[in-house]
């Protein structure tokens, strides 16, 4: 059954609908890489590399807990393989960002100087860029 077929709900790509499906979900349900996968693959229909070096979307969290510095470095190398670099000041909605709080983590730019991210403490939340989520780099995965 294709999208829009009788009896099938159509997914929407509106920012408010997508963020509403994730905000408030606990980290144990949606990790940081799980959120990236959910947004870009499930919601926006893109394909991302699932395995990079010896880390996959499924093993990222376990490996990060054992060695955050090593996995953060791998995350940055993975990050450089997707999309194209954009200056931080030119970030657009749906751009993938790497932000630093205690360690590096992926986040999705949702506009108005805010990112959608998932943290162990807060789960999935919208966070202002700058105070708790300092941007390190941005990549554009969708063409405008």
What's the assembly state of these chains? single chain
> What is the number of E strands?
8
Q: Classify the helix fraction into a percent range.
A: 25-40%
The name CATH uses for the topology is endopeptidase fold (from Nostoc punctiforme)
Strand content: 25-35%
The CATH class is: Alpha Beta
Description:
- With 144 residues, the protein is of the alpha+beta class.
- It has a single domain (15-140), classed as endopeptidase domain like (from Nostoc punctiforme) (endopeptidase fold (from Nostoc punctiforme), Alpha-Beta Complex), CATH 3.90.1720.
- 27% of the residues lie in helices and 27% in strands.
- The strands form 2 sheets. Strands 3-8-4-5-6-7 form a 6-stranded antiparallel β-sheet, with helices on one face. Strands 1-2 form a two-stranded antiparallel ribbon.
- Helix 3 (60-66) crosses helix 4 (68-79).
- It is globular.
